[in-house]
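With this grant's support, we have paired protein sequences with backbone structure tokens. One protein thus recorded is set out beneath this paragraph:

_____
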Amino acid sequence: MKIKDHFLSHEIFEIKETDTKGVFKTSPIPSNISKYYESEDYISHHQDSGSLKEKLYKFLQSFNLKYKKNILIDRIKKNSKVLDYGCGAGEFVKYIENDFQTYGFEPDPDAKNAATNKVSKAKIITDIQLIENKSLDAITLWHVFEHIENQSEMLSVFHSKLKEKGMLIIAVPNPTSYDAKHYKEFWAAYDVPRHIYHFSKNGMENLISNNNNWKMRKIKPLVLDSYYISMLSEKYKKSPLFWLKAVLHGTISNVKALFSNEFSSLIYIIEKK
């Protein structure tokens, strides 16, 4: 499938299935991929523009933050040690820092500075090796894993940093959801080339089952993502009444997913063996 970078460059990329069935990779990967993040609209790093899109993002984010924290509270004890890998501007790190010993990893200098200024207890780092081996109770990656090219290497690093039976929590978009199938090449969560990998539900299950270091424990939905992704997709299509259409198709996606479990984004709760 050929996909345009609707967000920034308008260049065309191709998505091809990898050796792991259900896992797809963007091709080609630009050697200077950092330039594809260089926009004040890139929502993970810049959250102070006041745009309508950003206001919706923040409204949905307020619900998602509580939902994500509860996933941790249900599985690890208070004051456990947590790393949010790819913490962006630090919203989640800030939200959980009073409940857990919290670290945020963020390589982007602007985002790291924003996160550092936001938190009071959490520690923001740019080198994961600063964290002692077998010291973490949980590592979270909220819409980050799809940006990582050297995934096998990073899974090994995460494994080394977690305690026995520590939790790896990965949230990624789902290209076999209704909204992905409906919007096709306009589906905003393809987000090429920033999203290097694309994981169907079966693809992520295959990736983890093929790795002897991990065990899939549970899969949970990020229900609100369908609305935000549908809104962006409608804007890429230059649709009139894009708000109304986004609500309609976001809702259809979630209703269908109640039966198929193919939500727009999925959270994979994975245990270290």
Notes: The chain is about 35% helix and 25% strand. The chain has one domain: 2-38+51-272. Residues 169 and 269 are 5 Å apart (CA to CA). Residues 2-38+51-272 form a domain with the Rossmann fold fold (CATH 3.40.50.150).
